[in-house]
Amino acid sequence: MKKVVSLVFLYLFMIAANATTNDENAGKKNEGIKFEKISFEEALKQAAKENKLIFVDCYTVWCDPCKRMDINIFPKKEVGGFYNKHFINLKIDMEKGEGINLKNEYGVNAFPTFLYINNNREVIHKSTGACDIEGFIKNAKVALDPSTNLYSFNKKYKSGVRDIQFLKEYLELLKCAYDMSYQSVFDEYFKLVSKEEMLTQNGLDNIIKYAGIQSQAMDFLFDHLDVYQELSEKPMYSLLFEKLMRLMGKLYKNDMESYNEKSSYFKKKMGKDWDYIHELIEWRNMVFVKKDKATGYKMAFAYYIKFKDRSKADDFWSTALSVGIAEESLPESLYKEALEMLEVAKEKGMKEDDKNFVFSKALLYSKTGRKEEAIEMLKDNIKNLSDSPKDKRRLEIYTRELKKIENEEKKSFN
After folding, report:
1. Which residues contact 41 (CB under 8 A, 6 or more apart)?
2. Separation of alpha carbons 108 and 102, rounded Å
3. What is the mean pLDDT of the chain?
4. Domain at 315-414, CATH from 1.25.40, 1.10.3470, 3.30.1560, 1.10.10
5. Which pLDDT score is estimated for 336?
6. DSSP state of 92
7. Which residues pair with 114 in a beta bridge?
8. How far apart are CA 218 and CA 153, in angstroms?
9. 40-144 belongs to CATH 3.50.80.10
10. Which of 132, 232, 320, 387 is most buried (CB neighbours < 10 A)?
11. pLDDT for residue 150
């Protein structure tokens, strides 16, 4: 009898302990931001009633930085304490339901985007990209302060304020909001700053950060490339790479005459550095614009052999991955060349156990008749994945490709 009573008490103790743990976990979950389960229109009414701004987390289901904010920032006590006190908080998928219209209304082009909106539907402040706790709370404080938020700076700019300090602060706000009008604002800033000040490291940093590729500031940079190269620890082609890629990709699609004119201009200004960028643009355009993958990837292999001392290893694995998962059937010789180029990437620093490297290699193995090896490589890769959002996404892709290769292997035996 005593044994039965003891077991009953033990059982009741375990239930109570479990309930306490569950209560503690529930309490922790409630410490973070409380996102309201209401529509945007309802939030506008509630904001007017409570005299608060609306905070909107604009996300998509595929966005890894959005998931990091969900896991690491939104649940934190200090974050919840501040946001729940000052805002009506909404979380809206920009690719579903009312999110589609809101995305267009507020010009949301990057994820995550954080909007701070008043009850008149006006954006008071806007920022983009994942950040830490301190930065996220700072965003909120800037939004709440009429002297620092984007809304007040927009009004000052429209009223004609143009002093250098104001423009500096305004540029940072626009850049943070992913508002491309920062390029035209920088044009005005550039006209106010002396040549001596622009020919400094700070001047170079500002041109790279804010200047449009077709602007007076960028022309100034190309006219003083030698000076800037002496200032910069990085090669100039590396700093200009993204800007040039965007411009030339756009011209290639829409205006070949301008594309050729710009190519001649950049060649004159940059010499061999332009060859490195231009040939990369050429093969990518062949693959992604003209959709001639067989020719494009042949150009890619020639490119990486020619520039293997400059090109990055991680640039190549993405190419090999594209070859491996291409929907079109390409000549097997191309896949074999890709495998050879993976070895080049490894020589240049790519780690053999790198998940992307292994995945690329497995896909290429499956394309070259080595399906059993590909299956084993993918299985091992899956075992090494963590619980991080990025690895969860990888798990979906790896599992899908593994099943596809296994099905192909079964068919070959039938």
Report:
1. none
2. 8
3. 86
4. 1.25.40
5. 81
6. E
7. 57, 127
8. 26
9. no
10. 320
11. 98
Q: Coil, helix or strand for 357?
A: helix
Pair of tokens at residue 235: 């090669």
Spatial CA neighbour of 236 closest among 245, 226, 246: 226
* Number of neighbouring beta carbons within 10 Å of residue 373: 14
Q: Give CA torsion, residues 248, 254, 255, 258, to 10 deg.
A: -30
319 vs 203: which has the higher pLDDT: 203
Cβ burial 271-293 (10 Å sphere, 16+ → b, else e): eebbebbbbbbbbbbbbeeeeeb
Q: Which of 29-38, 189-198, 287-296 shows the highest mean pLDDT?
A: 189-198
User: 315-414: same fold as 40-144?
Assistant: no
Backbone angles phi, psi at 107, to 5 degrees: 60, 45
54: helix, strand or coil: strand
The answer to whether 44 and 121 have CB atoms below 8 angstroms apart is yes
The answer to whether residue 8 scores a pLDDT higher than 50 is no
Question: Does 58 qualify as catalytic in the annotation?
Answer: no
- The residue extents of the domains of the chain are 1-27, 40-144, 146-233, 234-291, 315-414
- β-bridge pairing 53-59 and 123-128: unpaired
**Does 66 qualify as catalytic in the annotation?**
yes
